[in-house]
Amino acid sequence: MVRFLFERAGYQVLESHNGQMGLDLARQELPDLVLMDLSLPGVDGWTAARELKSDPKFWYF
What is the pTM of this model? Predict the structure, then answer.
């Protein structure tokens, strides 16, 4: 549903199926927004979010 709404609004949507894949994709693509399931398999969403927040590439301010 979320993917459909964003794509319909003209945004490009990238998707991963586990936390590690999500981290790798985010680091490669540097997206403007990350929506994450907190109970992802492997690296969970809480850990992935902490890792992204601690990475200076994601400090926009």
Answer: 0.82
